Amino acid sequence: MPDILLTHGYFLWEDEKEQQIMKPYPTLGLLYISAYLRRAGFDVAIYDSTFGDRTELTERLARAPGGVLGIYTNLITRSNVVWIIGEAKRHGWTVILGGPESANYTAEYMAHGADVIVTGEGETTLAELLPTLARKGPHRLHGIAGTTFCDEDGQIITNIARPQIDDIDSIPWPDREQIDQQQYIDIWRTHHGMGSVNLITARGCPYKCKWCSHAVFGYTHRRRNFMDCADEVQHIHETYHPDQVWYADDVFTINHRWLYGYAAELKRRGLKLPFETISRADRMMKDEVLETLADMGCYRVWIGSESGSQRILDAMQRAVTVEQVQWATKAAQRHGIQVGMFLMWGYDGETEEDILATIEHVKRSNPDIFFTTVAYPIKNTPYYERVAGQLVLEKDWATATDRDFAIRGRHSRNYYRQADKWLRSEVAAFRLEAENSAEAMRLRGEAEQAHTAMRLAAEEVEA
Ligand code: B12
Ligand code: SF4
């Protein structure tokens, strides 16, 4: 039996929405943990639930009762994780949780059977925790920094926080050999013509956007040495032959000096893999940065644009201006890089005027693609604290997610659906104006209808 079996609660074959999109990536956190623990001499196995199913996982737990199971948790997997905990406990396993979600709900997860919750980075904590668990069991873990557990009297004990790993270059690369990385690439290739592999070049983000969860890395920002990143990309290229990579960093262009050094190193090695990534407009405000990205093979950059109203951006503490987003979008496109934009409806204080400002902003920026969401409060974020008094959760905690919170007094979901239609029709009409004025006019009519429907829905509230 391995010292630890790692898994996560995401099952691709149960997710009909994602099966339309088909852009799965492995959970890097588990792969990092596996690599670190194996290097330290532990025996680690991974059950990658992305391509697995519940029966197979249960069989695995039943086959070797009494082991240690580590589960990655995030916002959308709560009900699955609760189910896995139940199965694991039924077969006598000790359950450790980690990742951004369990850190926010330690008491709730423990009430559902979890033995230990790890907060923050998992590598060093697990390396200390596993031998202690084997020696003392799950109720005498006093002093193991970064953990919460239940003592012999049934008291929940939270140990001191563990300092973050100073030198992230000391951590080995993600253990991609432990999973079927090829299956991810094949799915991408079948559905998008391009096989893709994800990697990160940094941990954490120092910005303080109020709705963003910093449960794992706090507000630190630690970058890897660009030589080591180039080695990893070269290894990925030579081992898996993907057609592209995805830098899953929070803000890929945060450090320009690093970016130039990294780009030069990739160039020196003749490595030009197309890639997409996420950044912030204010960290893309130089042609040199965009030229470098394009030169490296960047074909799409995603920007959290959120709102076209400066008032709302400021309320979110985004630390960016509407003009910066517009400039960065146009400039990236000028350099041949597509821009994807994330937008958010319904942030605290948003008015119809702000919604109109967002529509005008999207028209003016004209990104290649944009996605919208209705703002939801992730536990332990400043946004959550701000609306905490208005939150209503109609589902049972174990089957809900933070996305299911209704915010008392906020406009209804229908209101934001209409706002979304208004935006999409306006932008589509704007894009067609020059070449197909009849279709543009039809779309404008649709936009007007949606706007009217939104106004009619203005009195409907969420809870
Ligand atoms: C890339 C990314 C995505 C990608 C791909 C996800 C993937 N499979 O790789 C996409 C775009 C698909 C995505 C989607 C979503 N994401 Co996302 N995503 C990220 C991002 C930017 C990087 C993830 C990553 O690779 N991190 C690097 C690794 C090393 O860190 P880590 O996973 O946290 O792992 C460490 C620790 O958590 C811990 N640990 C992890 N697992 C375990 C297990 C055990 C047993 C232990 C002890 C420890 C442990 O140790 C690890 C190493 O130190 C993070 C933010 C971030 N910087 O982490 C957000 C983040 C995880 N996403 C988030 C959200 C909200 C979402 C969505 C719900 C958004 C939405 N509205 O749809 C969806 C959910 C989709 C899904 N299927 O999970 C939130 C989660 C908040 C929360 N409380 O759960 C985050 C934290 C962003 C944020 N700052 O708010 N995401
Ligand atoms: S939204 Fe992006 S920039 Fe803002 S704090 Fe989160 S990761 Fe950082």
Would you write up a description of this structure?
Helix 12 runs parallel beside helix 13. By secondary structure, the chain is of the alpha/beta class. The termini are far apart. The chain has helices at 16-21, 28-39, 54-63, 78-90, 106-111, 123-136, 181-192, 226-240, 256-268, 287-296, 310-316, 322-334, 352-365, 382-387, 413-432, 437-456; strands at residues 4-8, 44-47, 68-72, 94-98, 116-118, 147-150, 156-158, 196-199, 202-203, 222-223, 244-247, 275-279, 298-306, 338-345, 369-374, 391-392, 406-407. It is globular, with a radius of gyration of 23 Å. The strands form 4 sheets. It has a 7-stranded mixed beta sheet with strand order 2-1-3-4-5-6-7, with helices on both faces. A 6-stranded parallel beta sheet has the order 8-11-12-13-14-15. It has a two-stranded antiparallel sheet with strand order 9-10. It is built from 16 helices and 17 strands. Helix content is 41%, strand content 16%. The structure holds cobalamin and iron/sulfur cluster. Iron/sulfur cluster binds at residues 205, 207, 209, 212, 250-251, 280, 304.
Helix content bin: 40-55%
Mean pLDDT, nearest integer? 97
The bound ligands are:
cobalamin, iron/sulfur cluster
Annotation, overall tally of beta strands: 17
Shape: globular
The largest sheet has its strands arranged as 2-1-3-4-5-6-7
Structure annotation, total helices: 16
What structural class do you assign from the helix and strand content?
alpha/beta
* Assembly status: single chain
How much beta, percentage-wise?
A: 15-25%
